[in-house]
TrEMBL record:
SUPFAM superfamilies: Clavaminate synthase-like (SSF51197). Its cofactor is Fe(2+). Pathway: Alkene biosynthesis; ethylene biosynthesis via 2-oxoglutarate. Belongs to the iron/ascorbate-dependent oxidoreductase family. InterPro entries: DIOX_N, IPNS-like_FE2OG_OXY, IPNS-like_sf, Iron_ascorbate_oxido_reductase, Oxoglu/Fe-dep_dioxygenase_dom. This is 2-oxoglutarate-dependent ethylene/succinate-forming enzyme. It catalyses: L-arginine + 2-oxoglutarate + O2 = guanidine + L-glutamate 5-semialdehyde + succinate + CO2; 2-oxoglutarate + O2 + 2 H(+) = ethene + 3 CO2 + H2O. Residues 173-280 form the Fe2OG dioxygenase domain. The keyword Iron applies. Keywords: Dioxygenase, Ethylene biosynthesis, Iron, Metal-binding, Oxidoreductase. Its EC number is 1.13.12.19, 1.14.20.7. PANTHER family: 2-OXOGLUTARATE (2OG) AND FE(II)-DEPENDENT OXYGENASE SUPERFAMILY PROTEIN-RELATED.
């Protein structure tokens, strides 16, 4: 299906006046109805994305041993490389390799009895053979963070809030999470997947506030809408933006954290993406916004999922997701937590 997803131009927001009002009205409709849109006019210099792409491709082309040398299982901070085949979404195997990074910082000094999430901040792992990867990805992460925080201000205004309504939960130490991802080609029938094609990543919602995605020209990202699954076909110069579960929680379901998936490329092809997830500070709680009456009347309430309960306590919510996605890391570094014993052998993504 062709893409009916809206395209929003951030230049209209930056321009102010009636252009801004029009942007906010379109944004409000987009986040309530679809929860996914393309962002153009974001003003991020092209060179930053080009550098991130070039280094991402170089990384995935490293020999397997060089990538395994920075395996995520080495890191109590859930940073590093994960081979294809180590994740499942709702029981079905995903097929993608990825490198996870986050804010580059020293680990916190953790007091005994402190919440488990205080062990999450810490250094990234970088491949010794590719020193340029670090600068390119950290620069991209900073640029994406700036745009995501500007968008959050637009979300707040679009919902009748003060522009800074979300500022306290992203101030100074927002939870930055960047993944470069490669989906190898998969012969159809390889594994049960959508439309008889293989599953790249199964249907899920993102858990943070906002996701900003760069994708190459292969395609495969699909979004669940009232009209069924639609393709988020690549549009050069744009990001794909979607809201995560924290915004659904903060708005009592006015904003939709939309289900999406990636269909694996055919055998012989491959797909690469760069996904930035803006999360809230781990020490914060998700606020419940007081929506103006006209918007409150349209809020749908939360779509509760017994397999994936949501916590307003952000650190606990994020920790739960990391433990489920990467049970090997959980067992190596978090075996003291009671919930770790119950984890399945392979990561459950969503
Ligand atoms: O690779 C993509 O296009 C999307 C990836 C995704 O949905 C995720 O990692 O949460
Ligand atoms: Fe996602």
């Amino acid at each position: 299906m062709t893409a009916p997803l809206p395209i929003l131009d951030l230049g209209r927001f930056n321009a102010g006046g009636v252009a801004r009002d029009g942007f906010l009205a379109d944004l409000r409709a987009a986040v309530r109805e679809v929860g996914f849109f393309y962002l153009s006019g974001h003003g991020v210099p092209d060179g930053l994305a080009q550098a991130a792409w070039a280094e991402a491709h170089r990384f995935f082309d490293l020999p397997p041993a060089a990538k395994d040398a920075i395996a995520m299982v080495n890191s109590p901070h859930f940073r590093g490389y994960t081979r294809a085949g180590a994740e499942r979404t709702r029981g079905q195997p995903d097929w993608r390799e990825q490198l996870d990074i986050g804010t580059e910082r020293a680990a916190l000094a953790v007091r005994p009895g402190a919440p488990a999430w205080t062990r999450l901040p810490g250094p990234n792992q970088w491949p010794a053979a590719q020193p340029a990867l670090r600068d390119a990805l950290l620069a991209w992460q900073e640029a994406a963070t700036t745009i995501a925080i500007r968008l959050l201000r637009a979300f707040a205004l679009a919902l009748g809030q003060a522009a800074d309504a979300f500022d306290p939960i992203v101030a100074e130490t927002p939870n930055q999470h960047l993944k470069i991802i490669r989906y190898p080609g998969r012969a159809s029938g390889d594994a049960a997947g959508p439309d008889g094609r293989g599953q790249g990543v199964g249907a899920h919602k993102d858990s943070g506030l906002l996701t900003l995605l760069l994708q190459d020209d292969q395609g495969g990202l699909q979004v669940e809408t009232a009209a069924g699954w639609v393709d988020a076909a690549p549009i050069p110069g744009t990001f794909v933006v979607n809201a995560g579960e924290l915004l659904e929680l903060a708005t009592d379901g006015y904003i939709r954290a939309t289900v999406h998936r990636v269909v694996a490329p055919p055998a012989g092809a491959r797909r690469t993406s760069i996904a930035f997830f803006l999360g809230a500070r781990l020490d914060a709680r998700v606020p419940l916004l007081a929506l103006p009456p006209a918007l409150k009347a349209e809020a749908r309430g939360l779509t509760s999922d017994p397999l994936n309960p949501l916590f307003h306590d952000i650190g606990a919510n994020y920790m739960k997701g990391r433990l489920r996605s990467h049970p090997d890391v959980a067992r190596r570094h978090y075996a003291d937590l009671p919930e770790v014993a119950a984890l399945p052998a392979v990561g459950e993504y969503s």
